[in-house]
Structure formats: structure tokens, C-alpha cells
Amino acid sequence: MLDEIRQALLGWFEKNGRTFVWREHPDPFTVLMAEILLKKTSAEAVNRFLPYFLESYSSIAELYETPETELARMLGPLGLSSQRAKQMKGLARVLVQSYDSKIPCSRDELLKLPGIGEYTARALLSFSFGKPEAIVDTNVARVIMRVWGVKPSRCEARRSPEVWDKASQLVNARPKRAARINWALLDLGALICKPRRPKCDECPMNGNCTFIARKFTV
User: Fold this and answer.
1) What's the predicted TM-score (pTM) here?
2) Which H or E run includes 188?
3) 98, 128, 158 — which closes off a domain?
4) What range defines the domain where residue 44 resides?
């Protein structure tokens, strides 16, 4: 069943996956900037803004040299400009002073960076460094809960060990396709497996989905 689900996901993604700047150019700097901007901002808005941002700042060194006030003005159109500028400057400072302006490729080192949590660290490892790291947000958690009938044990769904276990199984068996599997899960949750009125008839996993089986059981 697991391999069947994985193949269905990848097949669906090839035809229906979303296109974003940070997917077309998944270098560590681009992915890191995208993840910072994606917090509390839609992917579509970030996708429109990011090319403009990268024209002015294309490296950690350039961020480090830029005054925080100037950076905040640049980030103004997306909102939360002061907060984001402060985080970017803090990151740039640590990376220049302690990492030779390079973004580390280990989970432990990434988690030492200011403002970098588990999700962003895993996104960098999967998308930029090609490592088989699972990524779980609310959309991915919903897909996994519905397909496998997983019920989180006393915690938020996206932090559930049961959910993470299934997500990890999906990517670990095909490490070279891990990034695409993660993108497929993210897109399926955003476009098809929605919180309300999911488009079950369009879902590539409807033949293996516990949610659908229960939905149509009399």
C-alpha cells in the first residue's frame, strides 16, 4: 500500500504540482528566505515578491552588509517587515561570523541558528541538500490522518508521532525523490484534501483512503 500511495502521489504531482521560485531554484539561500517569508504569508504572495527580493539580496553576505532599516523597507509589501528584517539580520550575522557565510547542511547546526525551527531545518535538508527528511505542516498532517485513519495522541496533529512516522515512511523508501514527495503532500493538502469540502473524486489516493472508505460506508 505504501509504495502504491507514493507512486500515486508522484504521478499526481508531475501533472498538478504548483510551481514556485524556491522549487525551481532550491539553493539554500533561496529556500531559507522563502521559508522566512512564508510564515503568515500566502505562497502565491511570496512567489510574486521573492524574485524582486533576490535581485537586491542574493547572498548571506549581502544581507549582512545591509542596514536593518533598509531591509525592512524592502520587505514592507509583505507585512511583518520589522520582524522579518530583524530575523534575517540575526541569521546573517551568525552565518557570517560562525559559518563563513554558508548555510549548514546538518539538522543540529541548522537548529542552532536564530529563528530556525524543526520545519525550516527539514525544508532546507530536503529541498536544498537532498536529504530524505519528512516535512509535516497542517496540510500534510490532514492528508496523512485521512489516508491512514491516524488519530493523534494528545497533541497537535502536525506534531503527532504517528503522523510523522507515516510521513517518514513515505520519503525514506525513496530518498532521491524525497523532495518531490514532500512537495506532492504539501500541494495535495492545499489543493485537494482541504479541511472543508475536500475534492475526494480528484484525489490520486482515493482508492487507499480511510477517510473516503468511512465516508461512503453505510
Assistant:
1) 0.92
2) helix 178-191
3) 128
4) 21-128
